[in-house]
Amino acid sequence: MGDARAISAGEVDALIVVGASQIWGPPVEDAQPLDYTAALTAMRAILKPGDRVVYGEAIWSAPPTPQAIAPLAGLVDEYLSLADLLELVEASGFLVADFGEASLEEWDEFESGFAARLVDEVACLPVNDPRRAEVAGALRGQRAAYLRGYRGILGFAWLCLIAC
């Protein structure tokens, strides 16, 4: 396991890459659409024809709403749909051998795990600690963003690819 950006062409014959658009794209702090093309181009440059990739990436599972985009980067075009991602993948020099999308139950589990860090932090802080209210507020904000915002709209795709 390591930084995919440090891999030289021909060094590997398979990759497992999750969030490649955040690896090879603009920093998340810039609040720009994911650069799927840069990620796919970089992965393809590393691989020889026939090499394999398990590729995981954020997608829109449903058309984005104002409530869904507000807690994210605020952009309707921040992510692609699964269909658009598959077309881009194939145009970038890969065959799609298999694909799927995380279920809503899997997303709930992921979000619960993400929030668990904040729950643990609140639980460990003394009642009179001023940081407790701040962390509890962050927890409420994260849950609201998910449950009242992007739940069922922001998704996660996984693709099994073969370099052409």
Uncertain regions spanning at least 5 consecutive residues:
none
Please tally the helical runs, counting DSSP H or I stretches of 4 or more residues. 6
Cα Rg: 18 Å
Percentage of residues assigned to helices: 40-55%
Q: How far is it from the N-terminal to the C-terminal residue, by CA?
A: 24 Å
Strand content: 15-25%
The helix/strand series, from N terminus to C terminus, equals: EHHEHHEHHE
Biggest β-sheet strands, sense, barrel: 4 strands, mixed
As laid out across the biggest beta sheet, the strand order is 1-2-4-3
Record field, number of beta strands? 4
The helix-and-strand class reads: alpha+beta
- How much is the average pLDDT? 91
The 3D shape can be described as elongated
Account of the 3D structure:
This protein is of the alpha+beta class and 164 residues long. It contains six helices and four strands, in the order βααβααβααβ. It has a four-stranded mixed sheet with strand order 1-2-4-3, with helices on one face. It is elongated.
List keywords for this structure.
about 160 residues, alpha+beta, 4-stranded mixed sheet, elongated
In short:
With about 160 residues, the chain is of the alpha+beta class. The chain has helices at about 20-25, 35-45, 65-70, 80-90, 105-125, 130-150; strands spanning about 15-20, 50-60, 95-100, 155-164.
List the helices and strands and how they pair.
Elements: E1 14-18, H1 20-24, H2 36-46, E2 52-60, H3 66-69, H4 82-91, E3 94-101, H5 104-124, H6 130-150, E4 154-163
Parallel strand pairs: 1-2
Antiparallel strand pairs: 2-4, 3-4
Helix pairs in contact: 5-6
